Every structure is written in C-alpha cells, then in structure tokens.
Amino acid sequence: MMTSTTRRGRGSPGGSPLIAYLFLAPYLILFAMFVLLPALYGFWMSLHDWDFTFEGRPFVGLLNYTDLFDPASVQYQPFWRGMSNTAIFTVASVPFLVAVPLGLALLLNTVFPGRTFFRAVYFLPYVLGVAVIGVMWRYLLDGNFGLVNALFGLDIQWTTDQPWAWIALVGVTVWWTMGFNAIIYMVGLGDIPGYLYEAAALDGAGPWQRFIHVTLPGLRPVLIFILVTTILASANMFGQSYMITQGGPTESTMTAIMVITGVGFGQNRAGQAAAMSYMLALALAMVSVLNFWLMRDRDAAREARALKRQRRLAAKENAR
C-alpha cells in the first residue's frame, strides 16, 4: 500500500512553501536591488535639496513637488512644457504604433512566398540602438543635403521647423518600433482558434465582420498589453528627440525626460529632477489604470458581478 509520504509528490501542494520562495529568490533579489531600492532612494532624494556639487543636502519635504505647481518657480515652465511636448508626441504616435503593426501582422500572418524573410525585414530596425537610428535619420532628414528631400524633390526642414519636426519624430519612431508590436500581434493571432473563423464564415460573415467580431475580441489581452507598453514607451521618449531635433525648434520637441535629465545632470539639482520623475510616473500610472478600465471585458465583469450577487443572496438564504 502506498504511504502518505509516497503519495505526496515533490510538486504536490503538501510540499514546503520555502521551495517556491527559493525559486523566486533570484528575481526578488534583483528586483529589490535594481528597482525597489533605487525607487525608494529616488523618492528620498526628492524630499531634499540634493545638489551633487555640495555636501549639505537639507531636507525640504514636499517643496520640490509644490514648486512644480507654482508659476513663480524656476522649474514650473520647463517641466510643464516638457510634459506638454510629451503628451503631443504620445497622442500623435500611439495610434500609428497600435494600428500600423496590427495591419502589418495581419498581412504577415497570411501564407505567401517569402513570408519569413519579410517578417525579419520588418523586425530588423528594432534591433538597432537609438543612437544608430538617431544619427542615421538626422542625416537622412537634413533639410539641406538629406536623402529624403533629394528623393522626393522636397524642400522641407524636417528637424528645424514645425510641424515637420513632430512628423519626422513620429515617422521615425513608427518605422523603428513597429516590428516589435507586429511580432506581439502575430503571437496573439496564432492563439485565436481557427474554428471561430470557420464558424463565422459559415454564418456569412465577411472579412471585415470576422475582423471585428473574431480577431479584435481574440486580441483583447494583446491589445491591452501593446497599448499600455506603447504609451509608456512614447511618454519616455528621449533618444529620438535628442539625436534628431535636439529638442528644437525652440524647445518644442523637448520632452519631459529631456527636461528631467537637464535639471538632474546639467544643473546638478537631483532633488528637483527626482520630484519631476515621480510626477511623470504618477501621470503614467493614472493613464495605465484608465486604459485597463476602458479596455476591460465588460461582459465578463458583468457576469462576475452577477455571480457575486447570487452568492451573497444564497449566503443570506442559508443564514436564515
């Protein structure tokens, strides 16, 4: 007869919970060292007048935060101008970074000769560093001798005039990163059962109807992931603007990250820069929560609420 010790496998629920923590320990240690502790230390810095050039770093409380809402403060105008520029870039780039890779994924998900080659070609720019992308496109978009103007017979100052500077930054970013989002979409498309498309076709649904009623619902988790990560990445845009437009013209493309970097390392005011970074992080957290709320599965949420209501009613009946 099998004993209880034998019946319990190594992976059974009756095993020691320390084993799970042992496997989690490497990740938790790295997370604490490189994420949690720096975040706490950065918040501590934001509560001080932290200057790298001085030994004394007096505690100022929330003064660095309140200065960001005081129009008389030195940092008020640069910070909110950077936040405004960040919002402009995010609003302009995110729709293209969500829609264009989706169309590309649908195209590359079909069977045609050379499909693997084209998948690699579209993903290739993403493996290049931002410094390479920035230098390359700065020369290609140069208004005087750039290849873009020469090929299309244009006379546009892509890096020194608006709105062309924003158009250039958005276009370069979409070209550079759309391959990554397209790969994520293709993984999501592969998880949609084929019989759903067959059933929809038998019911007389056309390509557009199958896309609306089968593809998009099946891609809901992927869409949420891509939307949130794309918004976060766009809001943290730094390299493209720094390398291509250098924040110009007249600081119109200077993003919040560029302002924070300038204050922290250019002016040696790390406390104020840390406060700015936490304000930016708070804004992004609010946007992320809003995205999750807007894109939630309303039908599933409604069913969950109804189930909870039934359980509460059943519990009351049993109590009687």
From TrEMBL:
One of its GO terms (biological process) is transmembrane transport. It is found in: Cell membrane. It is a multi-pass membrane protein. GO terms for cellular component: plasma membrane. InterPro entries: ABC_transporter_permease, MetI-like, MetI-like_sf. The keyword rRNA-binding does not apply. Keywords: Cell membrane, Membrane, Transmembrane, Transmembrane helix, Transport. The chain crosses the membrane at residues 21-44, 87-108, 120-140, 164-187, 222-244, 275-295. Belongs to the binding-protein-dependent transport system permease family. This is ABC transporter permease. It comes from Tessaracoccus lapidicaptus.
